[in-house]
What does this fold into?
Amino acid sequence: MNRITSLLKIKYPIIQGGMVWCSGWRLASAVSNAGGLGLLGAGSMHPETLREHIQKCKAATDKPFGVNVPLLYPQIDEIIDIIIKEEVKIVFTSAGNPKTWTSVLKDKGITVGHVVSSSKFAVKCEEAGVDLIVAEGFEAGGHNGREETTTMCLIPAVRNATTLPLIAAGGIATGKSILAAMVLGAEGVQIGTRFAMTKESSASDVFKEYCLRLNEGDTKLLLKKLSPTRLAIGPFKDLVEAAEARGASVDELKELLGRGRAKKGIFEGDLENGELEIGQAASQLRTLQTAEEVMKELTDEYSRLTQQSFTW
It folds into this structure.
């Protein structure tokens, strides 16, 4: 047992990322049942949809699970209210100032983690009173920090800057990468891309099959004038790259992005018009597995490498 497993009351210090259009109740409950911590991705859910997923997750597992909440969500008040009323015990926040909601959540007995991309923001998290920090390197899929710091560089920097329990994220998809993160100072890991490529993920099968064929270098960090986002190769990525190369303004990029691009790509499998968000670790994956199979592979490989049981 370490500080992460003790704080979250889980068997393994492995957290499933709360990814938009991927992280519904089926995935979250499957990861929790396998000994990790499943997270519901509130960022792609209307408030009442989130309530439904929380209730279904409760019915599907008696293990801890949580909700990931992007703080820039337009109906954030409603989301927080539902989380409190449904008695969710764990919340991971991201994309915003942790001071805004941390004290409100903690006053209700909720354990709060916050995702950061730099040691500077890690310090602000500690000042805001969060319980744990997720330090995410720019290998990760979807929205990223502007610093473009890799996980290998970010984790030791954050470890030196704060005493809070630390979770590593970004590019982690194997037992070997878990061990590397632990050696660098992390006490747990958050894994997105690998869990997005599971049978329980709510992403489109077309999107999953596409991502399982990606090779090294087939993702790129773009949309830096708006919110840096890692995209897989495809027609929309080409449009964005061409627009940025000619110096497109923020307004032009917003118009190009439009609305619902991520839903089209990830949830509906529209490879032509959709925003295909996935991390660099996709190039290591070739097989669609269950969440339970992924958890077993991760923990077995870690145990073989360390020659000790993966129980903390």
Remarks:
- The first strand starts at residue 14 and ends at 16.
